[in-house]
Amino acid sequence: MIKAVVGANWGDEGKGKITDMLAENADIIVRFQGGANAGHTIKNHYGKFALHTLPSGVFYDHTTSIIGNGVALDIPKLFNEIKSITDQGVPAPKILVSDRAQIVMPYHVLFDQYEEERLGGKSFGSTKSGIAPFYSDKYAKIGFQVSELFDEELLQEKVERICDIKNVTLEHLYHKPALKPEDLLDTLHEYKKMVEPYVCDVSLFLWNALKENKTILLEGQLGTLKDPDHGIYPMVTSSSTLASYGAIGCGVPPYEIKQIITVVKAYSSAVGAGAFVSEIFGDEADELRNRGGDGGEFGATTGRPRRVGWFDVVASKYGCRMQGTTDVAFTVLDVLGYLDEIPVCTGYEINGEVTTDFPVTHLLEKAKPVIEKLPGWKCDIRGIKKYEELPKECRDYIEFVEEKLGFPITMVSNGPGRDDIIYRESKLK
Ligand code: GDP
Q1: What is the mean pLDDT of residues 48-67?
Q2: Max Cα separation, the chain?
Q3: Which residue's CA is minimally distant from atom 10 of ligand 1?
Q4: Which of 129, 300, 347, 355 has the fewest CB atoms within 10 Å, counting from its CB?
Q5: pLDDT digits (tens, 9 = 90+) for 154-205
């Protein structure tokens, strides 16, 4: 059976921790979208790791880690990431890379930088990892598929063609040095050597695994609000962040995805630009940011301070609905233990009317948060293992959120570690 672990919001909800935890009882963990532009932070007995390309199951020796066809594959980054974890004492993981995955080329990273430079103050807040230029090329049908590394004749013809196209923009729009076909060819030869041991027909591998009743985890990157179709376009990422895309991003039947675990954080955070209705500022924000996550809300890949805000019912309810949630994992709840009262954004006021339905971007820009306050629990809930042992105010907060979301919270995370998890029965299930 297949389970998906995905995010309801802007990302950084703690998907890495939940995947790492569920991977204990899984056989295969798959990345199906995104690239090395975002990351997961995982804390376990080997240490603390920031993963950008590898799925969060690489720390177990019984699992196979897969990079699906939907991923923007940065081969040197993958290579270095494998090295960095084995250097820290993690046994060499079993890794497979789809022969249909496409390759992030060095010029994608350059185009990302040049475009941000060109846009100046109007930039999209890209992490400049080449993700948007990569996906643009994929859909313009001028990308390099891993399988193509093994056809020398095709490569030689294609590098010429790509240089012809790219050099027009480099010269006339960005005024930057031209690409040379022989340099691209050298890069591709190097990439072939690096990736060769891992290349596999992933959809066939997964098809066979399903027949053998293996458990497969799909690990999403970012969250619903960054989806190019259903998110806050244009401040979105370039591949779908939804569980339903999991079927496409690694080539499995959609009906095999039986459980969709949507990770929802007990407050909000976002990296990069875009509407964020429940955002807070000043000292109040600094305090939440510094106390947040595990060691503060700063990007796992970029180190950028994350924008923070109160829990947003409207965004999270929509985020869960678009994912097709069967279970909510409610994370980072322990962080809120310092507050006397916990503000929650329960509605958006747009043009004088209050709604709980998440609007399209141009209306979202006008939304003002409707805030309700719940009593805080004023203590440290880390280490608690049973739901009934949580303070009443804390359970009330969880149950308030669950009722507003309309999806069952079956897991509550009260710390960054694998064991910091409380399973609970939900009336909604
Ligand atoms: P992801 O991209 O969704 O995997 O999220 P990130 O890894 O970027 O951010 C989650 C951060 O919160 C990481 O530093 C985790 O170690 C940490 N974290 C996850 N769950 C919890 C939790 O329940 N409590 C606390 N305090 N930190 C958590």
Answers
A1: 88
A2: 68
A3: 14
A4: 355
A5: 999 999 999 999 999 999 999 999 999 999 999 999 999 999 999 999 999 9
Supply 314's token pair.
């409207």
The protein residue whose alpha carbon is closest to atom 16 in ligand 1 is 416
Cβ of 299 closer than 6 Å to ligand 1, yes or no, is no
Q: Please tell me if the CB atom of residue 15 comes closer than 6 angstroms to any atom of ligand 1.
A: yes
Contacts for 283 with CB less than 8 Å, ≥ 6 apart: none
pTM: 0.94
Which are the catalytic amino acids?
12, 40
DSSP three-state, residue 337: helix
In ligand 1, the atom with minimum distance to the C-alpha of 38 is 2
pLDDT surpasses 70 at 409: yes
Q: How far is CA 151 from CA 146, 147, 189, in A?
A: 10, 8, 11
Q: Which atom of ligand 1 lies closest to the CA of 39?
A: 2
What are the start-end ranges of the H helices in 93-226?
106-119, 131-139, 152-169, 181-195, 202-211
Question: Does the C-beta of 19 come closer than 6 Å to ligand 1?
Answer: no
DSSP 251: T
Which atom in ligand 1 lies closest to the alpha carbon of residue 295? 14
Entry field: residues in the chain: 429
Quote the CA–CA distance of 21 and 19 in Å, as a whole number: 5
